[in-house]
Design a protein that fits this description.
heterodimer, A: mainly alpha, 0% strand, B: mainly alpha
Chain lengths: 186, 139
Amino acid sequence: MLELILKPWPWYISGPMISLVLLLLLWSGKTFGMSANLRTMCAAMGAGKRYDFFDFNWKDQIWNLLVVVGAIGGGFIAAQYLSLGTTMDLNPQTITQLQQYGIQDAGTAFMPEALFGSDNWNDPKVLGLLIVGGFFVGFGTRYAGGCTSGHAITGLSNLQLPSLIAVVGFFIGGLFINHLILPLLL
Amino acid sequence: MIRSLIFLVIGLLFGITMYKSEAASWFRIYEMFQFQAFHMYGIIGSALAFGAVFTFLLKRNQASSFLDGSKLSLTDKEKGWKRYLIGGTLFGMGWALTGACPGPLFTLLGAGFFPILIVILAALLGTFAYGALRSKLPH
């Protein structure tokens, strides 16, 4: 049992676990939406004084900030205590492809050292990728009204057509960057 | 107090799952957009399948909150397509670049990948920019 937890989790354990998180949040009267926290954080920092989009009682959303604190803690616990190593069973083709781009640790690391290593993030190109990417994540999720949790899981589970349109958008944007832009950047 | 603890535990469960499933890994997102593995599609697909059953059951039984008996928030999304398609496409671009959607952003911070803080700050800035420009954007 312990060994099963310590190994990477297969999709058929991970997916149902996510649906359990969805069930618990819906059943408690809340929603499953991680990007909404970014809006709450802006509101908590006083953005509501300038733009009415952030002018709401952010304290009503503290429950979701607690989910964020848990998600941070969960990352710490999983990385420190629930993992034997960082070997990842990626497609060998993916590994070869990334190695050609100079990302040597595909399959052995959890995150690419070239982008998230403590020595590389301040390279102007890497810094640009992190900043532009992060900006798009924040802008795009709020524009679309949700991210993977709010649209792809919650919205589609509730058979919402707008969520399907949003997920199509996720893939249009993702495929464009992954196939046409990343090869130039990496 | 108990209520706070419940949301903290749900978050823990979510964070552990994001890490252990490798859904928080840049590599898995790259592989997903290359269509080179079933892994991410299996995760999202099975979460969705079970999620749809759970959502259906909560609705059919007209369940109320187990915490305070209040009504569940199973509301319909606003109609329209522009904001979903344009916003979704922009988010997809960010997802493919950073390999992180908003949940994993926080999980990766806990796992000790500190450059993710730059992504989180940029995401806050992006959210703020949307709030500032909202009235000028097509929805």
